[in-house]
Amino acid sequence: MLDAAAEEFAAHGYMGTTLLDVIQHTGMTKGALYGHFSSKEDLAVALIEEAGAELSARAAWTGGPGTAAVRTLRETVLGLARHLRQDRRARSALRLAVETPHLDRHDTGLVQRICLPLTRAVTQAQASDGSMGGYAPEAVARLLVSAFFGVPHPVPHDDADAGRRFDDLWAAVSGPQKDEDASSRREP
């Protein structure tokens, strides 16, 4: 049942999926589906909970002993990508968490639960070998998730929040800013 629902949600999103779609996909009766889940919302919540826990755990992977922090980060992101490509429940959970964040019953949303351990990994990589250019670790983690998985970070709360998030991401992609005062004091 969850596999059929995951396939439908991954392909059509929450709004584009009906319980009838799931029922037809499984070949079950309506009564059998309702015996397990009372609504489309219950199905979505179950997928986010189950597959989201797996995604969060994979994002928190710390690598093997002696593995360089930047390599661990790289392998973690690639492992998440592989898992999302191969597991329809994971793809569905991530799409549902982005489209319908109110269905995620955790205090922090799934995207944030993925970003938090990646932020720690970026911080460790920066501390161990100076990689990642010294950019804000949270911005780098959000950028990795946004760019590599095609997942936007949760919708900003207001214009000020949107501005802060944009500035963080902009700093992560635009590189270190030159001190304009220092450059203007240099002689030609």
Provide the gyration radius in Å.
20 Å
Q: What class, by secondary structure content?
A: mainly alpha
The secondary-structure element order is: HHHHHHHHHH
CA(first)-CA(last) distance: 71 Å
- Provide the residue-averaged pLDDT: 83
Q: Based on CA inertia axes, which overall geometry fits?
A: elongated
Structural features, described:
With 188 residues, the protein is an all-alpha fold. Helix content is 70%, strand content 0%. It is elongated and about 60 Å long. Mean pLDDT is 83; it is low at 179-188.
Topology, element by element:
Blueprint: H1 2-12, H2 19-26, H3 30-36, H4 40-59, H5 69-86, H6 88-99, H7 110-129, H8 137-149, H9 159-174, H10 180-185
Quick overview:
The protein is an all-alpha fold and 188 residues long.
List keywords for this structure.
188 residues, mainly alpha, disordered C terminus
